[in-house]
Amino acid sequence: MTGQLPIIVILGPLLAAILAAFTAWLRPKLSYPLVVLGLAISFTAALKLVFIVADEGAKIYWLGNWGNQNHEFVVGIQITVDNLNTLLLTTVSGIALLTALYAKRLVETELAGRQRYFYALLSLLVTGLLGISITGDIFNLYVFLEIAALSSYALIAYGKGRAYMASFNYLIMGTMGACLYLLGVGFVFIKHGTLNIDNLSEIIPTLDPSQALFVGFVLILLGVWVKMAFFPFHGWLPNAYTHAPTASAAVLAPLATKVAVYAMLRIMFTVYSLDYINGLTGIQPIVLYLSTAAIVMGSFFSLTQTNLKMIACYFIISEIGYMVGGAWLANRPGLTGAMYHLVADAAMTSALFMAIGCIVYRLGQAQLDDLKGVFFKMPVTMAAFVVTMAALIGVPPTCGFFSKWYLIQGAAEAGVWHFVAALLLSSLVKAIILFRIIEIGYNRVAHPAIEGNPAIPRNEAPLSMLIPTVAMTLGLIALGLATNTLVNTIIVNAVPAALTQ
Amino acid sequence: MENLIANFNYVIVVILMMIGLWSMLAQKNLIKKCIGMAILQTGIILFFISIGAKNNALIPILTEAAYSDPDVATVANPLTQILMLTAIVVGVATLGVGLGLAQKIYHQHSSFDEDEILENQRK
User: Fold this and answer.
1) Which of the residue ranges A13-17, A79-83, A438-442 has the most confident prediction, judged by mean pLDDT?
2) Tens of pLDDT, residues A178-233
3) Which of B90, B95, B115 to mutate to test the interface with A (most CBs of A within 10 A)?
4) Whole-angstrom Cα distance, residue A413 to residue A26?
5) In this structure, what DSSP letter does residue A59 have?
6) b/e map of B72-97 (b: 16 or more CB within 10 Å)?
7) Are A150 and B98 inside 8 Å of each other by CB?
8) Where are the transmembrane segments (chain B) (predicted)?
9) According to the CATH classification, is domain B2-59+72-122 in 3.40.50.880?
């Protein structure tokens, strides 16, 4: 049974998605428990894999047992589960499960009467994301990238007003990114005749650096950058995630971009190698400058926004800069920081969007001016919000502190001071925004939407939303406290071996 | 020049991809953007098929006898064709979602023109 765990991780949500689509048609009430069950199976399997892989090393699974035949060439699709995979699989399936539990009431109010296929799409999205994080084949990665992207277009288009146009723009940009990625895969394939990641990582170091290899690398990189909304290609993200229904945004925002960052890490350090990255002396400083620009621009635009969701979206853009920068520092603390931040940022963004969702549930929107009195009426939600913001700022002992710690250490080691400055600046900007929200939120005169009955002092979001939000927020602190274990048992094995010796 | 003629299909690939990218980025009409998307994907499909094609190559179906030691020079590369079957499916799905969204936008704004839609949204 444990040998089949890698495929169960994907099959859970995939089967749930298919069944939920049919039951949504016949018995709409059944699709929600089905999806939750699918996600729970996937999360359990992923959690088990963490311990198995940490003990026994990477697991290889051949789809349909095609790879076990004794050929010289590889036939079939391989699934590889190593420490980086398990880390991401647990994060993705865990956050997806918690968000699914959280989203029920939100979906009922926001999408009243239209929620029929919502959970099927959500489950399909998670299938795509899990697929990207587990596959050992670069073309398969493209297919999962598109599965995730297609379901996210639909999830975003569930929103009102501008959501269609935002989703359409995302579709155009996303397809362009996917096409660039596919073209890059073509170049890699011309040179090596294989798409298997393990095979490629053996072959590429033995070949002389060639144009085709380099062009393939750049195209793949551009493709995943578009998908992760890295600085010059970030245009689609704020509109798409702001106009999407809050429930969609709560699952898309933390996961979709992070998984694309994982794809970049995998291409950079497994398919290509650390030596190859270090050999690109012309590109490395440019990417680091771009990451700095991403952080600075993301911070700057988050200051100018008046909508809480929009602010959170620009936070994502600057956080992407953290991870890309950390990865391209290509030293041990930098990469540790980038990988740790994958998990930490997914958790922080998830907690942030859950808290925003609670506010939106009561207020109907999340303009900064509407937040008057919100601290008195929704103390638990706002406590979670403040802790999340503290994590984003980087206050110890939350997880945000440790990822920044590693990233700054890595940047200092590499002597990239502009990156250090950008990291500190983004903390400062987040602190400014937090204090601005505190200033508005402690206004005695509450917004009519949350004032409710003046005799009742509190007007919190329903418990089914509040509990996951608080759980996620406590998770941020727990993650911070568990940093040492996480870094020393899992991430240390995920960082390229050349760096850890 | 000889090189250009020998790699004629790659020239077409580049032209197709440029047309596709240009109309996705520069066209204001949403339907034309969708068409550009389809053209870009066609370019990539042609690219992959060109990689796997060989002169006078046969269909890549191997007999039992040839299975262990196939004469790869006489068969076309099946992998690229299989990959493109998947890519075509993905492309059709994307185009379908794109056109569906364009139709929804048309219902909302009675226009396919990006500028008009943006103006409408500002109101």
Assistant:
1) A13-17
2) 999 999 999 988 888 888 888 888 888 887 778 888 899 999 999 999 999 888 88
3) B90
4) 60
5) E
6) eeebbbebbbebbeebeebbeebbeb
7) no
8) 6-26, 38-62, 82-102
9) no
In the DSSP assignment, the letter for residue B56 is T
Domain locations in chain A?
1-251, 281-501
- Say whether pLDDT at A74 is over 80: no
- Which amino acid is present at A72? E
Domain ranges of chain B: 2-59+72-122
Residue A102 exposure: Cα atoms within 13 Å on the Cβ side: 30
Going A355 to A357 to A358 to A363, the CA torsion angle's sign is positive
Q: What is the DSSP letter of A137?
A: B
pLDDT digits over A231-248, tens only? 888 888 998 999 898 889
Torsion of CA A236, A237, A241, A244, to 10 degrees: 10
The single-letter code of the amino acid at A121 is L
pLDDT in tens, B76-123: 888 888 889 999 999 999 999 999 999 989 988 888 888 888 888 877
Continuous segment of H or E residues that includes residue A79: strand A78-81
pLDDT tens per residue, range B10-64? 899 999 999 999 999 898 999 999 999 999 999 999 999 888 888 777 777 777 6
For residue A429, give both structure tokens: 């900007």
List beta partners, residue A146.
none
DSSP string, A431-454: HHHHHHHHHHHT-SS--HHHH--T
Residues of chain B that touch chain A, judged by Cβ-Cβ distance less than 8 Å: 17, 21, 24, 30, 33, 37, 40-41, 44, 47-48, 51, 79-80, 83, 86-87, 90, 93-94, 97-98, 101-102, 104-105, 108, 117-118, 121
**Beta-bridge partners for B58:** B75
